[in-house]
Amino acid sequence: VFPSLAQAQASVANEVYQELGQPSIFLFCPTEYCSSLCSPSPSQSCYLQTIGQELLPGIGVIWTGPKVVSQELSATLLEEVEAVLRRRPVIWDNLYANDYDCRRVFLGPYMGRAPGLMSRLQGLLLNPNCELQANFIPIHTLGAWFRSELGSCAPPDPAGEEVVAALGDSPGAQDGSYSPQEALEVALRDWVAEINQQALEPGG
After folding, report:
1. Does 160 reside within a domain?
2. Helix H segments across the chain?
3. What are the beta bridge partners of residue 112?
4. Can you give the pLDDT at residue 204?
């Protein structure tokens, strides 16, 4: 019925999206969802070019970066992906994911993401460690990174000033910078406080 897999996927996704009344959030995960799965590259992938052309503009497209688990995300890569998809991507960040290897647990801070990325994204999803308690530092430092991104792109109006003021003394909140080391230290301090609080609770 369809001349290509991409056209089939886009057609079905478009139909479902319209049948649901074009919801404000509707995400599509392409078969080629990272650079390493594209041939020969994201910008020259016939599959992604078709997805970008055929998929309705209100549908968000998921992207994981250069690889399935990407150590770094650059503005240059996101520009290339945005151009071929004709929309800003939704990053599905597998930096902490360990569902493929339960012996791997990453407890470090959120890092390897270039400053100013939020303005190039439609959204960002974090795929956490499978172990609940192992996600305190990842999620805490992701919050610090997001606050720094929000602070650096806040509009110069009273509402924007209120947002920045509400960020408090979070790492990078005031000057728009993000330090993984500083974020880690704050997260560790808060994690110890959380552990001590739980220890004082009945049955702790």
Report:
1. no
2. 5-19, 46-54, 75-85, 136-152, 158-166, 180-200
3. none
4. 65
